[in-house]
Design brief:
Helix content is 78%, strand content 0%. By secondary structure, it is mostly helical. The chain has one domain. Helix 4 packs parallel to helix 6 and helix 7 packs antiparallel against helix 8. The longest helix is centred in the C-terminal third of the chain and has 28 residues. The protein is globular and about 50 Å long. The termini are close together.
């Protein structure tokens, strides 16, 4: 098994600290630039961690997925929802490629059915959530890539309780974002839930893929 170096362990620790501590960012009157850097740091450090552990094309694909996620985190704050969503969608497409390269050799019918149902369920819910119906088609388009990513993760050979669940947490986080533009607009806990689900999902995906690949690299 490929063991992480001290530097890799330190980077992962800093990533977790940055991601978890950002839950308290709104308690501090920080300059906007500092808050943006803080927000992007968690997943950016996950990307760096994945890069330090990468030994195969799959490892580098994971690093790219995390890097695009961190880019999306920053662009959401600096350039708005649409530009940030484009970065995230690019990350979903790379993740789909990673997961399909690592499909399970055999699937139970129930697991295949769940993967199939993830896509229409996610897209329909996302489409119905926003109060501004003009933006609903764009949200549905983005959610198609999001849902396909989660379905591909579920049928991949990576552990479902880490990578599959992490992808579903990512889906739940984005659905909360869309709900914040609709029925959950005035609920103060939504922002906490969005970040907690998102970062925990990205962390589970990163650790699950890295751990699987490390077992195969001697």
């Amino acid at each position: 098994m490929d063991r992480p170096s001290l530097a890799s362990k330190l980077i992962l620790t800093l990533a977790i600290l940055a991601g978890v501590s950002f839950l308290a960012a709104n308690r501090f009157a920080l300059p906007e630039a500092a808050t943006i850097v803080w927000k992007g740091a968690g997943v950016a450090l996950l990307a760096l961690y994945a890069a330090t552990r990468a030994k195969t094309p799959d490892g580098w694909l994971l690093a790219l997925v995390m890097a695009l996620g961190a880019t999306g985190d920053v662009l959401l704050e600096t350039h708005g929802l649409i530009t940030g969503a484009v970065a995230f969608l690019a990350g979903h497409l790379v993740a789909i490629a990673l997961y399909l390269r690592n499909r399970r050799p055999a699937l139970e019918p129930s697991q295949l059915l769940l993967a199939i149902l993830i896509v229409p369920a996610t897209v329909i819910i996302a489409y119905l959530l926003p109060a501004d119906r003009a933006g609903a088609p764009g949200i549905a388009f983005y959610s198609t890539g999001l849902a396909l990513m989660a379905a591909a993760a579920w049928i991949s050979r990576f552990p479902r309780m880490s990578v599959g669940l992490g992808a579903l947490m990512f889906v739940a986080s984005d659905l909360l974002i869309f709900a914040r533009a609709g029925p959950l607009e005035h609920n103060p806990w939504v922002g906490f839930g969005v970040w907690a689900l998102y970062f925990a999902g990205q962390l589970r995906i990163c650790l699950g893929v890295v751990g699987t690949l490390a077992k195969e690299n001697t």
